[in-house]
Specification:
Chain B: This is Calcineurin-like phosphoesterase domain-containing protein. Chain B: It comes from Aminobacter niigataensis. Chain B: Pfam families: Metallophos. Chain B: InterPro entries: Calcineurin-like_PHP, Metallo-depent_PP-like, PdeM-like, Pesterase_MJ0037-like. The complex is a heterodimer of chains A (870) and B (237). Chain A has 32 helices and 29 strands. By secondary structure, chain A is an alpha/beta fold. An eight-stranded mixed beta sheet of chain A has the order 3-4-2-5-6-1-8-7, with helices on both faces. In chain A, helix 16 crosses helix 18 and helix 23 packs across helix 30. The radius of gyration of chain A is 28 Å and the shape is globular. By secondary structure, chain B is of the alpha/beta class. Chain B has a single domain, classed as Purple Acid Phosphatase, chain A, domain 2 (4-Layer Sandwich). In chain B, a hairpin with a 4-residue loop joins strand 2 and strand 3. In chain B, helix 3 runs parallel beside helix 5. Classes of the chains: A alpha/beta (870), B alpha/beta (237).
Chain lengths: 870, 237
């Protein structure tokens, strides 16, 4: 099974191939697709490539004069850096065995001449990203290019499949299978709750339409006793094949590895009620850094990274080399940190998820996670960073930033010990992504609609796609899909005499290539140093002669928009003074002192996972488990028990109390900030209608506070309305529709869908379109489309997207159904201990909303005040 | 502003004066001169949707319908003797020729019995095909001059369009951006009326030197009225 050079290579090093590596090879040699689930450090990469390497090693030499051979194996990774990393790591055994195998990367950074050359003379193994695959497929010679393809290796599959990127990749995979019917897919993944979803994803699905992921979220995180023994165990599940809907790849599971040593920071300091800075823990964290060789500090957001970095340097009396790494920093800066890390010259790196995936960085012996890890899988992944060897335990410290996070960390810790993992539920394939793919197919070879429909349904996320939706997507790609059929003459794709759809003009293919991909970033501005100082106060940079220095990185436009010249903010680990905006650059100088702002970034805030939320509720409900908590936290819960109550695991506690001139309602669903925000919007609408005169609400990951002029407690008591009515599931009907109709959330979602579907472009040939223009026109298009054709396919895609994304409607719906008949109302005279954290967020957390006229009114009134009513 | 003058204006309008001539900035994006019985609308950009569709960007074909129905509403309301469409009435030179028949009919109905002036714009330098009305480079009425592109420097009494002004303020840490009428009392630049028209901040370099005191007052268009915001409160971007 293992060719001679490999046997020798292993032997020379005193190694032997691991069982899962041989099992995977055997499965592949039998012609099966395989999913390998293994913890970090288990030799996953080598296992994934072994079928390709052995096959290539014994392949007969190319005869002189014979045509170039095509790509033999495709490797797809979510990160460019990962592809580069693999080329390095895999190159070593290939060289050492002197195998006649060529290997190259192809990413957005690959120069044009190299790409052209790769097309003419492809390497045996091509390492690339989902976007590059889409581009390759959309070229006219795609079928020829891939004709020799045998394997596709999909790395970090668990992280790829949950997004629109995964949808695009699944469609690409389906296309490849159409070119090469016996193509074998090898998926590499970290431990997931439901491996069968990934097993289906890897192989062609049967053709009877069925609802996609019929399974309920229950049973998620079941954890089949993984990690219960310290020695790795192996399990092989045979593949399912046939014409049914349940085709699955063979599954190889490696479990175990050393049990990580995780502790929760036990600080003498007071743990704050709310907030995310964890400032109280800085001395302890610093101490831990001093005692270890290399520490990786993970935080959940870029703002937290900036803050933590500042605070650490404030106490860094030993001048330890501590660095900062996050996605907004300039690439050069990031590469420097990564290199220093690999060379083991850093004591610590403060990082966000940019370092999240399986890249190997130096000799880390401690991982500190500041803030709650939000999802158990994420925690496992991050801890895997320390000690990249399977048989040694990883060391990690969790640093909760507030009291609820103490509970969450505790729950996460227990979950990790149990080996429970949760991944976001897979969602049905998005229609905007399908539109992009359909255009891509027409840019490549022409397509027959019937054939493409069957092919698309072979991709797991699109198994349930009905023919009508598919046809509407094709219609959208052709002429915009409008009921007013006025664009027939401008069609982008046309059906030709042979019944196949083709691009109507080469320009369309060019536009497609510039817009491929599903990642839409918030409009960003370069942050550039300047010497010149602007005048303080509101004003424009246009009057300034701003001379540019080096670029520090990129920052969200909407943060910069709220700054005035002279404002101080933290970025790239420095305190900067805002000097003005010019074009797409934000000019700054060295600042210091004063009131320093920290940019808040879009995204990067992960909601609490369903599984962890359940654990936290369970812990609250069970005083016996409080002994594991620090005293100040268990005291807090006991106080709550005395002054109010603690809800049972499946109950929803709603407290009401007066405070100041207002009446408050605090609910504790523990369903994450997004779902709570949606709930808050819907509840305030309802309360408004019921005459409670609500004034606002604020949501955290754990709870939701609503305040009103009306006495909410008394209203609920008198059942006008009852809490059951207020929290009735029917709020997800008309109320949701009405609110959604002009929500900024939907507009933002629409913009993304419109770009992905190719309705508007993210850039023109030769010039990057700036974010402002895209935003404006997408909003206007949305308004016009909504009033003239509310059932348009793109609006349908937008609503589906918002429901699963920013609004988290699915989770809210599950919660509302769970708490039916289980709402516990507690009327209080004053705020309860459990309510303090969310109440402290009031005024701190801006209430998200429409940019409303009130603000304009205030500004206009200012003038009237100043000028008198002359 | 005295109370009587305010009462004369419609709901949602802000009474102003340009070069001494009384006018109302209507929240719907048009400017009305009561003494001249004249209504100004700028940058309709009709058939912008189909103009983009020709180049492969299939944005919805409903912009002309949306723009015309809003226009019909204000025309019906004011019943003006004179209407000035301040240029870029069509998004491109062939826009009028592409205008679907039902829209041509409704536009003709609006024009019937009025003096309708098409000011030539950079997008539509020639007279629109098959439509009545008089096409002119510029129009002088009662001390005012109407032209598409604002002239450089100070231009007393000029009413222009072209730049699609919008303004931005930051209040309580939040940013609000709206289309606006931009005026320093001597001249005025109209907001764009078309459904798909973007906008350009009045503090942009393109407006340089046009207003006394640097920044104009921005008459920002809210959802139910127009808010006059002093230049000193405006933010770029």
């Amino acid at each position: 099974m293992l060719p001679e050079p490999f046997v020798r290579w292993f032997a020379e090093r005193g190694w032997s191939p691991r069982a899962h590596q041989l099992d995977l090879l055997a499965a592949a040699q039998q012609g099966n697709s395989v999913l390998l689930i293994a913890p970090t450090g288990a030799g996953k990469t080598l296992a994934g490539f072994l079928p390709a390497l052995t096959d290539l090693a014994i392949r007969p030499k190319k005869r002189p004069g014979a045509a170039h051979r095509g790509v033999h194996t495709l490797y797809i990774s979510p990160l460019k850096a990962l592809a580069v990393d693999i080329e390095r790591n895999l190159g070593k055994p290939v060289d050492e065995m002197s195998l006649p195998i060529s290997m190259e990367t192809r990413t957005g950074d690959t120069p044009q001449h190299k790409r052209t050359r790769q097309k003419l003379s492809p390497p045996d193994i091509l390492l690339t990203t989902p976007e590059q695959l889409a581009l390759l497929i959309a070229s006219p010679d795609a079928e020829r290019f891939f004709s020799d393809l045998r394997y596709i290796v999909l790395d970090e599959l668990h992280s790829l499949v949950t997004s629109k990127r995964g949808h695009l990749l699944s469609l690409g995979l389906a296309r490849l299978r159409a070119f090469v019917p016996d193509l074998q897919a090898i998926g590499l993944s970290a431990t997931v709750a439901e491996p069968d979803e990934l097993r289906r994803w890897l192989v062609r699905q049967g053709s009877s339409p069925s609802p996609l992921w019929g399974g309920s979220p229950e049973g998620r995180g079941g954890g089949d006793g993984l990690a219960s023994t310290p020695t790795p165990t192996l399990r092989v599940d045979p593949p399912h094949k046939g014409e049914g809907t349940n085709n699955m790849a063979e599954l190889i599971t490696v479990s175990g590895g050393a049990k990580p040593e995780i502790s929760i920071l036990d600080s003498e300091e007071h743990v704050p009620w709310s907030g995310h800075s964890a400032r109280y823990a800085i001395p302890d964290v610093y101490e831990a850094i001093r005692k270890h060789r290399t520490t990786l500090l993970f935080v959940n957001t870029r703002s937290q990274a900036e803050l933590l970095f500042q605070e650490l340097w404030r106490v860094n009396d030993d001048n330890l080399p501590i660095a900062l790494h996050h996605g907004s920093l300039d690439v050069g800066q990031r590469r420097k940190v990564e290199k220093a890390m690999a060379d083991n010259v850093l004591s610590a790196v403060v990082a966000t998820s940019t370092l999240d995936l399986g890249i190997d960085w130096g000799d880390v012996d401690l991982v500190i996670h500041v803030g709650a890890p939000k999802g158990a899988s994420r925690l496992a992944q991050r801890i895997g960073r320390a000690n990249h060897r399977m048989d040694e335990p990883s060391r990690a410290i969790l640093v909760p930033a507030n009291r609820f996070e103490v509970l969450e960390c505790r729950a996460a810790l227990e979950a990790n010990y149990l080996g429970a993992q949760d991944t976001p539920p897979l969602i049905e394939g998005a229609l905007d992504v399908l539109a992009q793919h359909v255009l891509g197919c027409a840019c490549g070879a022409a397509f027959d609609a019937d054939e493409l429909y069957d092919e698309v349904r072979g991709a797991a996320p699109y198994t349930g796609l009905d023919r009508e939706s598919f046809d509407r997507v094709v219609d959208f790609v052709a002429t915009g899909g409008y009921a007013l059929r006025s664009y027939e003459r401008y069609a982008r794709i046309r059906k030709t005499k042979d019944g196949k759809w083709r691009v109507s003009h080469p320009r369309i293919a060019q536009q497609y290539r510039l817009n491929v991909g599903t990642i839409i970033e918030a409009p960003m501005l370069n942050v550039r140093y300047t010497r010149a100082k602007g005048k303080s106060g509101a004003g424009s940079a246009q009057s300034l002669a701003l001379r540019g220095g080096p670029v520090l990185g990129k920052i969200e436009e909407y943060f910069v928009e709220t700054l005035s010249i002279g404002d101080m903010f933290i970025f790239a680990g420095k305190v900067l003074r805002f000097e003005g905006i010019r074009e797409n650059e934000c000019y700054v100088s060295t600042g210091g002192g004063g009131n320093v702002l920290v940019p808040s970034y879009a995204g990067g805030k992960f909601p609490l996972s369903t599984y962890l939320a359940e654990q936290v509720r369970g812990m609250l409900a069970d005083p016996a488990r409080w002994t594991a908590l620090p005293d100040q936290v268990s005291d807090w819960l006991r106080m709550q028990q005395m002054k109010s109550i603690l809800p049972r695991r499946e109950d929803l506690l709603v407290e009401t109390f007066p405070r100041g001139e207002r009446f408050y309602m605090v609910a504790y669903p523990f369903e994450g900030r997004l779902a709570h925000q949606t709930l808050g919007m819907l509840l305030t609408r309802r309360l408004e209608r019921m005459g409670a005169r609500p004034l606002g609400f604020v949501a955290t990951d754990y709870s939701l506070a609503v305040w009103a002029l009306g006495d909410l407690g008394r209203m609920f008591k008198a059942k006008k309305p009852s809490l059951a009515e207020l929290f009735d599931e029917d709020m997800l009907g008309d109320d949701l529709e009405a609110w959604l109709a002009d929500s900024w959330l939907l507009k933002r979602t629409f913009r993304n869908c419109a770009v992905i579907a190719g309705l508007i472009e993210r850039r023109f040939p030769g010039q990057e379109k700036n974010g402002r223009q895209v935003t404006v026109s997408a909003d206007l298009i949305y308004d016009v489309l909504r009033s003239h054709e509310p059932d348009h396919i793109l609006l349908k895609a937008t609503r589906a997207d918002a429901a699963s994304g920013l609004l988290d409607v699915r989770r809210l719906a599950e919660m509302l159904s769970r708490i039916r008949g289980r709402i516990v109302h507690k009327m209080l005279d004053q705020i309860s201990p459990l309510a303090v954290p969310v109440m402290l967020e009031i005024g701190r957390e801006p209430v998200n909303g429409e940019a409303n006229d009130t603000l304009l009114m205030e500004a206009a009134d200012l003038i009237e005040e100043a000028m008198g009513s002359a | 502003m005295n109370i009587a003058a305010r009462e004369l204006t419609r709901a949602g309008c802000e009474a102003i004066a340009v070069a001494g001539m009384r006018a109302a900035c209507d929240q719907r994006g048009v400017l009305h001169f009561p003494e001249l019985d004249l209504l100004v609308v700028s940058d309709l950009h009709l058939e912008k949707g189909s103009s983009h569709a020709r180049r492969g960007r299939l944005i919805p074909p409903y912009d002309t319908a949306a723009t015309l129905s809003r226009l019909a509403e204000v025309v019906e309301d004011y019943q003006p003797r004179i209407i000035v469409s301040l240029g870029d009435s069509f998004h491109d030179g062939e826009g009028a020729a592409r205008l679907p028949e039902p829209f041509r009919v409704s536009l003709m109905a609006m024009m019937a019995g009025r003096n309708w002036f098409w000011i030539a714009g950079n997008h539509d330098p020639d007279a629109p095909a098959d439509l009545p009305g008089e096409t002119v480079e510029e129009l002088a009425v009662g001390g005012l001059v109407f032209r598409h592109e604002p002239s450089k420097g100070h231009a007393e009494g000029e009413i222009a369009g072209h730049l699609h002004p919008c303004a931005r303020i930051v209040q309580r840490g939040r940013s609000v951006r709206r289309r606006c009428f931009a005026s320093d009392g001597a001249r005025l630049i109209m907001p764009a009326f078309g459904a798909f028209t973007g906008s350009l901040n009045v503090l942009d370099r393109a407006y340089k030197g046009m207003f006394r005191d640097g920044a104009p007052t921005a008459y920002m268009i809210g959802t139910s009225r127009v808010y006059p915001i002093a230049g000193s409160l405006l933010r770029p971007g």
